Amino acid sequence: MHATTSPEPPVKLRDLIDAMRKLGNAMRDTQQTAHISDARGAALALTTAEGAIVSMNRSAAALLGYASADLAGKRLADLAHEEDYAAVEQQLRDSADHVFRTFDVTLTGRTGHRMPLHVYQQTFAPSQGGALLRLMLLAEPLASLGSEKSQSAQPPADDARKPATWLMMGQQRERERLAAELHDGMGQALTLIKLMVEDARMRLRRGQADDAAQLLDATVLQIRDTIGEMRQICGELRPLALERLGLPAALSALCRRVGQSIETLRVMFSCGIEDGEIPDHLKADIFRVVQEALNNIVKHAAASEIRVELQRNASHLLLTIRDNGTGYEARPLRTDDARSNGLGLTGMQHRVETQGGTFAVSAIPDDGTEVSAYWPL
């Protein structure tokens, strides 16, 4: 994989949000629905028109087995096997005259496994001028899922468009990805810990107590990192607080924890709905949207006050997160925060709108930002 200079496009968050909405509308207009996105969130990539990766969000990077920071500045074609490199480059060249385009590519994960992907691509021009950029949503074609299974695992023709069928196949693919993540991440970490302990034991037997103690200290740090990785994987599957407390209590605890972590920040939570009144299929999405919004505010907004409200009327469930910070329109999106702030917002939008909801980000007069989402009931 060849590194390139990491691009710094003058793109604002509004540009990305608008591009994601246009991408979603174009997908619906062309009835492009027979593909499964990463169950942990939309797998999104932002590239230059030449295919240099500006940013990949965590879901897209995890799809390929990388960390997001490993990919910024690389070329998309560099993630392909040498046999597929020319085909990926050709697809990027063919996209030059298209605002919206879908195409298939085969990329290679960190482990060397070749992965067919379907790409939904929206080309857009930054509002502040400059070169064109491309927002890509990466999805795994159902055909590739079926080819890895026996013929009996493929859905019957008359069920081919039933949501339950796609959900079942998506769940199976997510189980496979989780198994690979545990094997490649947790498995390797535990193997390293085992080797470090064995090395320390051998040094003790040779009387090298100081060396053994230093190695054991390093082992403890490795164990802490591994525990953190395990908790992160478990939290991605489903926040534990949701299971134990229900959504309103889990959101209250999240807001309280964020407020306590920063002395100058006050986080207020208001909820006018009981947990039993919230559809189960929306609970994890609502929690993730609030979690992502709070993370963005803490990292980027320099706010002193945040208000989170979850309310319900006769026909809709409404979530709003308001802050009194610098405002999302006041600062251009740069490479070092595109993943956490820009593509995080578009991932939130995708999460809301794929459940039939509506997502919006707007500036508040006298500075500040409001993130809102509502779902019909």
From TrEMBL:
Top enzyme category: transferase
Molecular function via GO: ATP binding; phosphorelay sensor kinase activity; protein dimerization activity
Species this chain originates from: Paraburkholderia hospita
Protein name (Swiss-Prot/TrEMBL): histidine kinase
Enzyme Commission number(s) of this protein: 2.7.13.3
Stored InterPro entries: HATPase_C_sf (IPR036890), HATPase_dom (IPR003594), His_kinase_dom (IPR005467), PAS (IPR000014), PAS-like_dom_sf (IPR035965), PAS_fold (IPR013767), Sensor_HK_TwoCompSys (IPR050482), Sig_transdc_His_kin_sub3_dim/P (IPR011712)
Limits of the Histidine kinase domain: 286-377
Record bears the keyword ATP-binding: yes
